[in-house]
Queue: 4 jobs
Job 1
Amino acid sequence: MNKIPGAINLGLRRGALEIKQFTRQRESVVFTLLFPLILLAIFGSVFKDTIAPGVTFSQYFVAGMVASGLVNSGFQQIAITIPMERDYGSLKRLRGTPMPVASYFIGKSLLVFVSMIIQVILLLAGGYLFFGLNMPTDISKWLTFTWLIILGTASSTVLGIAFSVVPKSGRGASAVVSPVVIILQFFSGVFFIFTQLPTWMQQVAAIFPLKWLTQGMRSVFLPDSFAANEVAKSWETGRTFLILVLWLVVGFFLTLRTFKWSRE
Amino acid sequence: MNVIEVRGLRKSYASFEAVCGIDLSIAQGEIFSLLGPNGAGKTTTVEILEGFRTRNAGEVKVLGFDPATQGRASREWRNRIGIVLQSTSDAGDLTVSETISHFAGYYSRPRNPEEVISAVGLEDKAKDLIRNLSGGQRRRLDVALGIIGSPELLFLDEPTTGFDPEARRAFWSLIDGLRNDGTTIVLTTHYLDEAEALADRLAVINHGQIIEVSTPTQLGGRSTSKALVQWRDNGELKSEETENPTALVSTLTSQFSGEIPELSITRPSLEDIYLKMIGHANE
């Protein structure tokens, strides 16, 4: 008798399928991928000031948009689409097959990763071409960028899967998930300069990953001299790494405990 | 060995007891139909067998395996069963052929996707997006996904809802073909003609209990119940209920020279018997 296919192999196949499905939803593809660039265009046109020597608001804002992209294409997208799939019954159908739950999660992560990469490339290319964005030249900055993207995608995805049990229905999912993300964006210094926010907001934001992702991205896209303007007077790279890993682990165990295939 | 073996199965939701002590044995290669009104405990029972729900008490073995078990063993078990759920609908951004080929990859010895597509009669729709299929066509896709893994045991929940009569006949012959391959099939349906056409045995469930397990022809004493003989005599329609229709017809034959006008003999239909059983159970 042949062996049943392995979980990783099926996860890759799920990923390919998820991406194929995603690309066929034209409107949402265009909107999801271009949205950060549109926001950059708006904010870049409104706030033309320089916030520190050699740092424009656009430059500051791009760091926040890259970090937000991780939360949008991971947490938000996943926590909205899973309740819909659950309502449609497609999750229950998958549950009835020998495909393991791990493969389903791998597939979702791949979808997030790919849409994330495209979104970032569009944002950075658009920012560079039209808004005078400075790209980091230091290789170590790109290294930080890489692990931030990987850890950010992974933690954002598992937390999205974990949060997918909260919306009661597929229809209401967007109304439950989107405000959480938008509030988190305001608190985490995506739309405003973080240090200008009230202290209590900063403290609340410091619990969640987005603030750390945003700060991490600033360490990539802003000159090192700007570190002195941060709350801790430093980029806190090590702490950012630890907090993201912690959220990844917490999200992973939450997901295993709470994931629901059907609405019962 | 029986493919399904259930002893003393119980399941409650809060204070409501949905399944109150069910025993069931289903043999290999059998088509077994579960009948019962909505809320009778049918779906709960089947979903426990499928491993979708937990139980409160009783022993359950499906292909020698407890469906409540998790992990690796559960995957091996699911590799051997097929499930066609009631109403699945998704966004439908994939084609029929893409979806079936993808699901084939989940199993260790899948059927050929193209063969399955033609078995359910979707050859012309293979390249169409699922969102463009009609209700009946979607249902046929559900069935295709249920059988793609060449299951030893297939669960069918209301498989022909939304089919036109022609599609339903085609579906029946598909199921007949699976029976000939030795597939055991558990069929839940509201259509009694479907149960009659397909099932080797059937069980009537009401109020969480099995009222009777029998064959379609013998359920509820159907084979020995009185037959209704009708004929026309002098322009008047006559009818008589009798336990001995042959004797009556023989008497009539001697009365009439040649054909007995408009002669018919009817036994109660499966539906008559079923409704009577459910009605009695409600009293």
Note: Chain A touches chain B through 28 residues (CB under 8 Å).
Job 2
Amino acid sequence: MRSLFYLLCSAFVIGLAYWAYKENYRTQASLRGVKELQQHIAQEKETIAVLKAEWAYLNRPDRLRDLVDLNFKDLRLIPLLPSHFGDSEMVSYPGPDMFNINTPVRVISTDPENGKEWP
Amino acid sequence: MIRTPLRPLARVIEARKHGENPDGIEAAERTKRNLATLQKTRKRAEARLTMLGLLFFLGFAAVGGKMAVLAMSEPKEPRMALSNSQIYSQRADIIDRNGTVLATNLITTSLYAQPHIMINPEYAAKELAKIFPDLKLEKLMEQFTGKRRFVWVRKKTSPEQQQRVHNIGEPGLLFGPREMRLYPNGALAAHILGGTGFGKEDVRAAELIGVAGVEKFFDARMRDPAQVDKPLQLSIDLTVQATTRRVLEGGMKIMEAKGAAAVLMDVHTGEVISMVSLPDFDPNDRPAPLVKGDQSDSPLFNRAAQGVYELGSTFKLFTAALALDKGLVNENTMINTRGPIKWGKFKIRDFHNYGSQLSVMDVIVKSSNIGTAHMAKDIGGKAQKKFLGALGLLEPTKLELVESSHIKPLAPSNWSELSTMTISYGHGIAATPLHLASAYATLSNGGYKVEPTLLKTDSDNLHGARVLSGETSKTLMRMLRNVVTRGTASFGEVKGYSVGGKTGSADKPKPSGGYYDDRVIATFAATFPTHDPQYVLVLTLDEPSIQAAGEKRRTAGWTAVPVAAELITRLAPVLNMRPEVAGSGKVQYTQVKN
């Protein structure tokens, strides 16, 4: 009986030791993973910062103004002036709804030769 | 184990045979047995004690050992607690009121050399001089062949330059990561942002330290690790700032001025929406301060917040404001304008002769020095000083710029009656355009004190102490409007925005004393729209002149005012202000259903 108890105990201890060993390595592995992830995040953040800076640099007012001047033919943009403000009076009151132009319409008239409907 | 009985039969019989007491045998046996038990227990106790001692020793050894290890090893942050932000970025971004980036950080590489491990220093120096044209070949040669073991070559390099340096193939040229400050908008808002420089430098990193502007004012906050993720939001609007700079630059060229400044301020909150000073500089490549000569000629000089000028007739409004607020006059009271006023050998005269008397309104509209001086005499110097003090015109502003925090307006220490009269029309007192803008904002917003600020405020109404009554404020706005519709600032009319303003042209003082005849500071302080003031614009031109209507004109009405009008035309739509066209707002719409 006693030896069985000892046996069980030692088996339990061995089991525990194995579990602890495994957990230890798993923890270390996830820590490594976290570290890698954090490096990755840091890299991505750096990239974002660079992109943000580039975006701000590309959108600087001086450059945009020059681009607008260069592409005046296509864009026809000029600085916003007070005369550009519209008034609700300038918008005409919406008329009645137009019918759907995709619906086919039958056009009927009478054939002058025989007096029948045509076509 | 064979147990010995206490009374072994053989020995008891033997003892009985000899007539001895067998109890003696039992006693002896018992003693023997007790002795054995005692020895056994003792042994066990000893073993236990040893075991316990060993355990304690192990325990203490473990603690001690750990302590020794901790003491000997390098201190290290626990890996899990490493926050991401600390890996890069050691300085917070700066953004404008709409969130556009004004300043951010970029990782670049620095280039340094270790001459003692160089293989061919001469060749490396020649190639480097080719890649970086601003480096001197002789100096590089001297540094690389000298005794130094470490030489900084460049603090910032671009990836292209880095590749070209790699192509030299010199093992003694090394790179280190380096964070740099980037101002993507270049010279826009240069004076506000200031600039940064490197503090303590290392091969692996370098400190970024603010050297001027908000960068220096908020240096501690920008570098605070707890706030490094939160960008600093300024009250500046980048679009408005860009427009202001462009128009001002054009105006400065047309008016042949050597410098110009403009401040646009929200009259209610004191937020500076744009502040431009020309000439300016690129904060990415901040020029060195002037070693000799006048600092105010340097592009680093902020004319709007640092330049202390006599702002001339723009101060007349303060005199009128005080006289109205004290109830001494109303806008129709007639003021004696017969001149010139003689004060000892000093004479006060007007630009034109305005006849014998003008109403208070017309004194402002026509800008009569004599009329204002008479009003100031009635008010008295003490009250005038107190009022100008209440408007913040005698103390440095609280603007968040290091440059402006110690700029105190120049006022006479002895406030005599003569100074009271000259100050009434803006001579003998000098302030920055920023001071003027905040004082005009106070007059415009109904009379509440305004402190200029560069930080965006969330609340709409940050009203300070009341300086003058709302009624006076309204009268003043009518006066300013009249200056534009029929007075000295007639070029300032912008259709639909009801601009009101006051001009000021002051002769520039000579460094040797006295005033120049042909150099003026032309100022226009405007507020719009006058029936519900939203913004104050102060525009200053340094030494402007223009050939107009047959003669050379220098007064503000011909120089600063047209530029300001153009500026308001361009700015008001950007500021989301609708022009008020006749007829708009009067039409009523009724929805009819049948």
Note: The longest helix of chain B spans residues 22-72.
Job 3
Amino acid sequence: MAPPAQSQRSPSPSQPSGKSEVSDLKLQLRQLAGSRAPGVDDSKRELFKKVISYMTIGIDVSSLFGEMVMCSATSDIVLKKMCYLYVGNYAKVNPDLALLTINFLQRDCRDEDPMIRGLALRSLCSLRVANLVEYLVGPLGSGLKDSNSYVRMVAVMGVLKLYHISASTCVDADFPSILKHLMLHDSDTQVVANCLSALQEIWSAEASTSEEASREREALISKPVIYYLLNRIKEFSEWAQCLVLELVTKYVPSDSSEIFDIMNLLEDRLQHANGAVVLATIRVFLQLTLSMTDVHQQVYERIKAPLLTLVSSGSPEQSYAVLSHLHLLVMRAPYVFSSDYKHFYCQYNEPSYVKRLKLEMLTAVANESNTYEIVTELCEYAANVDIPIARESIRAVGKIALQQYDVNAIVDRLLQFLEMEKDYVTAEALVLVKDLLRKYPQWSHDCIAVVGNISSKNVQEPKAKAALIWMLGEYSQDMQDAPYVLESLVENWDEEHSAEVRLHLLTAVMKCYFKRPPETQSALGAALAAGIADFHQDVHDRALFYYRILRYNVSVAERVVNPPKQAVSVFADTQSSEIKDRIFDEFNSLSVLYQKPSYMFTDKEHRGPLEFADELGNLSIGEAANNVVPTQMVEENDKDLLLTTSEKEETKGSRNNGSAYTVPYDGSSTSVFASQTHIESAVSNPTSAGHSPQASFAIDDLLGLGIPAAPAVPSPPQLKLNTKAALDPSTFQQKWRQLPVALSQEISVSPQGVAALTAPQVLLRHMQSHSIHCIASGGQSPNFKFFFFAQKFEESSNYLVECVINTSSAKAQVKIKADDQNTSQAFSTLFESALSKFGTS
Amino acid sequence: MISQFFVLSQRGDNIVFRDYRGEVAKGSAEIFFRKVKFWKEDGQEEAPPVFNVDGVNYFHVKVVGLLFVATTRVNVSPSLVLELLQRIARVIKDYLGVLSEDSLRKNFVLVYELLDEVIDFGYVQTTSTEVLKSYVFNEPIVVDAARLQPLGPAAIFMQGTKRMPGTAVTKSVVANEPGGRKREEIFVDIIEKISVTFSSSGYILTSEIDGTIQMKSYLSGNPEIRLALNEDLSIGRGGGTIYDYRSSSGSGAVILDDCNFHESVRLDSFDMDRTLSLVPPDGEFPVMNYRMTQEFKPPFRINCLIEEAGQLKAEVIIKVRAEFPSNITANTIAVQMPLPKYTTRASFELESEAVGQRTDFKEANKKLEWGLKKIVGGSEHTLRVKLTFSQESHANLTKEAGPVSMTFTIPMYNVSRLQVKYLQIAKKSSSYNPYRWVRYVTQANSYVARI
């Protein structure tokens, strides 16, 4: 009876092709269809099971559709369920056959047993056949009003399924508003939770086209709804609690007492055994307290213990998910966790992906008081049987050294690594010693003594070899046999496969030559000859360059190749803080595990309820309607004002001729601010003026290719903004996510401006008069937050601005992102001048 | 919100496959399996529980060798999906009694029925065995548990506890006993996993106890239950570093670092008398998880010595001493130690009176293994190994070998001294006296001695 073990995709000779079996089943089903003999249900069950098992392993049993439907006339619920499962699986590919099932499903929807009603309704909605939607509306409508909560629960999900088959049918039947009513009034919490899931999906999808839907979506995070759900949170199942908590994250409380009320209410959720509930709660806490530094700090302290408990109590998979979140928090606030470092020690049986997270955490929390112990522990891992982890442990030691804690002891450890005689340990340690010397040249004496003892023959890895060669060149004056080691390396030039190593070798030989010319001369000659003959382009070019510059002037060559160096103070971070912030905003999502913001791994439609839209969503888009309306008006007028082609060219021409002012072609448009705008916007920006044309000119000349230089008169660098710029919120969000911050600055707001900022709208109108449009705004005194955008005149190049104005300090924090980075400074100047005029004009 | 759920066997066969939203292409199971199997070319690294291939996120958990997988395109909460997968496995086990490839294959229709009620259109509806009972109608086909290898938590209690019905916990919550009437009984298991790292000189570098009080109730009529823990139990160690051993006295109060509770647990009187009250839902669930870093006496002391013994030769001596009372017996003990890479041969020498011990040298990964069926409290066992090397060792041998790691199970023993003082079942009738099983077990999680 058990389904065959092999699956369809790897058919073996013994595997039944299915064909004869299926026709056999067909015959048997037909015989049973009309039978009323006792025990017939049992035989049917056996047959149905066979059908389903074929279905599972991928054999096509769709040809049995008719027989299955005929056999489904039964009161046996187990049979019914199997039949529903079958129908649901094949209806989509056989819409004609699906019609056959409608009758009996609709009849079952009126059955007196609520279980049958629910099951039939679920199957009916799962058919996923577009031309059958008309049959769904009736049963769904009565299902939503059913006296049994199971049926209502199923009906609510049914509405969502209907929406995905035919959005218009669903909306036209007014189902969303029925769900909204149920959500706020149903006694069963699972019905409420399903309503919430369904409404979030429906309204998010509708919001892009319907004002009303986006208002409804906003209404989900309004105070009454949030409080209604929060007050009942303990009645919800643990999964529904996660849903509610996710919603609460988007809610913006009006004051701090509200924040504390919510946190006190949710405090005990941190003790929940389900990690998903705890993480959702933590996200609420973190989001709520973002602007309250002290409390935010306390939250970190508070959540430490529950997180650690989850890490150690859950399944290995769950513990990895939680650990990733802990990792994120540790990276953000290492000092909070510095006394918990022992929790981040690796256990020998942990998988590599867990160990890797822990190593990073250990590196981050290292400080004056625990460095010694952490480094001692890391050194144990260096001898680990797991070689990749051993390597990373050594790198971790190096990173800690570069963080400047107790370098003294660490250098000794690193040098011990070099003596360990394990090739990968030596290799990693060499790379580290090199980095260390770049930051702390004062250690050169100690390090060089040890490095000098390493035979270059024992170092094979390119990175390590390059590091060793770099040190030989850099410290050739202190290393007795440096010229000779380099010489032997040059002799084996042809055996060196890595271009990186050969490049380093060239440079090292040069450096050595400047310090110890007589000993190095022959090696240098050999190296340059080998380099020029090298097939690798970069190696060849570098060798040729060295050769020519040496011929020109040796002292110039020395200044170029071996100038005095400054110690590196900070090595560049791998991830921008912008991206890290983004990931933090997406706490309790996959972003944390992948260490990437969601736009990097999901397409827009699937970004889910956690998407960035929420940030804008918090700031009511409704308020921005003030400026949406004029924009639309302008667009409408635009149609009447369409320019002829010649006129357009004229405008362009005048721009290219470099005139500083362009006649606004929108002439008499409704925008009364237009003329003022262009004068204002034409502020030129001297810093970025004409840099790139000049640079390209220089290069053309250098190459001597005889190509005419770039136009001698570059177009003037002033920036003009489009008064009628239009950008829809979703594009804005997408751009905001993708673009890096071009500029970030603090701008003072005049006292008059602060006084005028009684409501955000006032500023919106003012900025609009400068062709800077608001897309979303929000906040309460003293903190107002605005998202603005502007477009370059006649180009689709956008500028996006986040502006947070604090009225008590009269300062605005401005972040600017731009499609065209080169003009962001010019735009910033414009923006600043516009903002500073606020209240004065 | 998930898109698909499926269970794959170790060989990658679909055992059950349910598509909830039709957003992910059908071939996902294959894509997933290939990715997991060939995560890194060298096969050394395990695939993480969550990964993304072409915009589809794959989540998986491993349960008894089966892969429980969910897919979605949405950026969901990973801990929610992973927890859900674990719960689905648990619900299935509650129903089938035994969770195995065989039992799943025999009961796949029942499993489909469960899956339909657990998730609707990708959204979790319920994972409570209790609630599901009223929606699910298929009867489980019970797989003979005796035939199965003792896997999972049920097996760990079986040795050394004569009165304990070993098969009870592999009983389905819905299937009727052959006799017709269900036996009224409740199991409370205190399972502690301990992690200890000893330094080369025998000091304890780190130690932690991760404990769970697990319950499985077969009581009819859902009576309320009261569980009383140690009265002197305290939670949370005030300020300072968690690893401050001096602050905790060797004897006396049990101090937990932190704990969490199942949602059915009410803590009304917990602060007063350390009593948990709950109405246990059907099926297996953790009442409470706790974590402890308070100092405790490790059940085993490990001594390891590695010395050169002439050219291309060395000797290893491993001593294991059981430091628990002699009426307690540990079982299924395994000791492992990586040897220098250039080891070619290892000859073992056990004590003369050794019974039920086996030794092995794993040539491929240069590891020695020493298995002991049982160790009685207070006893000491020694293993001597003579190693032959293929090359001269230049460096310190202790840097080339070790650490020694150990796994074991000690039934009816717990290191934390946390206890269930009593288990009270509130039911009116005086004749009602169900079986109550309170069982303790200690297991090694990461038990390592450096050399």
Note: Chain B touches chain A through 93 residues (CB under 8 Å).
Job 4
Amino acid sequence: MQNDEIISKINQLLVDEIEIEEEKISPAADLKKDLEIDSLDFVDLFVIIERNFGVKMKAEEMADIKNLQDFYDYIIKRVHSN
Amino acid sequence: MASFKEINLPQKPPMVMVDRIVEVIDKTTITAFLVKDDNIFCEDGLLREPGLIENIAQSAAAGIAANPADAGEEPKLGFIGAIRELKISRLPKSGDEIITSVTVTHEILNARVVDGKISLKGEQIAYCELRIFLESR
């Protein structure tokens, strides 16, 4: 899977599964402040990402992920390392 | 693999919705529960939907409490954060014994994602995914 496909898929999942408004999605968007992702959404994200990318996210690695670009980079790295 | 006769739950009667743990295999716990007419979630002799969900949640709690790492500890309080993919095909009636299988699919800090299935006489009658948050100690 190419990087742009991964990003597009993540964006689609955020809209469809986490119910984030499409216009709020941008690489600089802060996950908590701008996208308003709460603890329950994070749990859903773990499940959704594993189902769609086969990537088991690690909670301790999420501490450094602040914005959507960080999140894209993390998932892309994990997808390619699988 | 381990078998247990006693359960360790924070709930007290009449809210206890698990009679016994049948088996714990890795992250899967199997419990049994006899539906009685005086159950708080029974109506017209049928165990209603909230009772089925509570049964799955308590089965998960019983499995978590049965973890050897928590042996001898007071059971942690858990809170249902969300219910996903709920499917109920029929309701058990008074006198039925339901068998519930719960598997912890994800552990994310103090959150647990649990797949729960309830069977009656070998037929699956309910399924859901729960997001459970455990109290921090």
Note: The mean pLDDT of chain A is 94.
